[in-house]
Amino acid sequence: MGGLDFSLIDWNEIGTAILDTLRMLGVSAIFTFILGLPLGIILYFASRSSSRRVHFVYIILSLMVNILRSVPFIILIVAMIPITKGIVGVSFGVLGTIPPLVVGAAPFFARLVETSLSEVDRGVIEAAEGMGASTQQIILRVLLPEARPGLLAAMTITIVTLVSYTAMSGQVGGGGLGDLAIRYGYFRYEMEVMIISVVLMVILVQLLQMAGDRLVRHFTRK
User: What is the pTM of this model?
Assistant: First the structure.
């Protein structure tokens, strides 16, 4: 540790890496929630349906979700290179990392959504059904409000997971703090940059976790 010299660090490059990480995190989180929330709702209702056809759909969707959740993210990035290039035009950098991030995180979030909805008191749902509420009304006025603390916790867990995914994307030139840590810390043996990158990612995760926990506490009914 005595040989470390932090005065040689290019802080402009560190700042750019932070912004790249936040861009990847923000955009991928938005699309993850947009795709994962309805998928989780579909999984919830399909798992409780008495229809064989709907239950078959649940089995297929559940299998797809489990497969995507099981694939290591670094492998998913490589496997999706042709698809990513077709969607955004590039397969590397900040933009090229977003599609794999979404594909990797959306099924994870969907499963958390399904679990959160499953924890809603069945009696509340039955009461709404007894008053003639439609499926849409049950979702918007009963399920989502009642499951709000669990959903916020699920969002927090997913965002923190996305931070680790952005770090792994650095192995294939994904950009951000992970890419900086690998390029300088691993290939150039500049430990100062790697240490700063790791510390900044730890701080980012802590801030996100604290914010999420505070929201969960705020919306949890006493």
Answer: 0.89
